[in-house]
Amino acid sequence: MIASLYISMMPVIFGGIFNMLFVKIKKLSFLRIPIDCKMSLGGKRIFGDSKTLLGFVGMMLGTSIFSIMWGFILKISGLENCNLIYKYHYNTLIFNMFTGMLFGFAYMIFELPNSFIKRRFDIDASHRGRFPVNIFVFIYDQTDSMLGVISVLAVLGRLTLPEYILGIFLGAITHIVVNLVLIVFGVRRYL
Question: Where are the transmembrane segments (predicted)?
């Protein structure tokens, strides 16, 4: 099951890395429009400057591209049956493009409540508050997007509740490991 979860989620992993690089492209700065349009609620920004149209576009584009490529790789390698989604759906270019966009959209949408909460409590990305709040914020930072992504996988791959929980746990651990690698390579500044 663990291998199948990773095989099913590989486009999201690579899509997230793609997005980290995509949002750094200076020529795309015209898309750095904050999702909250710089609106405030109670004197504080709704989501902040880090949640932008560029991030949404990059994540949806990246997961779509990698879903298409990964579907092709699984087809030619004979590993389609290891992908939980392909047990119930055909591995086609259009389907993979659609699911990739859906994964990317879910990833970004499920990050928004976290950003909203952090703005309310003045918690920025580099300083996560004091104990025990910092532990809760760290865990939520690593699992928020996974809740969305694994929810999409749960519907498409018909996951059971234990499989769903395992997917979120593995997704959070993978998120931490990938972020640590990105820090080492200078793509990210903080976990």
Answer: 6-23, 53-73, 93-110, 131-158, 164-187
Number of structural domains the chain divides into: 1
Cβ neighbours for 137, distance < 8 A, ≥ 6 positions apart = 118, 123, 128, 129
| pLDDT of 130 above 80 | no
In a domain, 58, yes or no: yes
- Residue 7 inside a domain? The answer is yes
Please, what is the average pLDDT of the chain?
91
Give 120's pLDDT tier (boundaries 50, 70, 90). confident
Task: Indicate whether 190 pLDDT > 80.
Answer: no
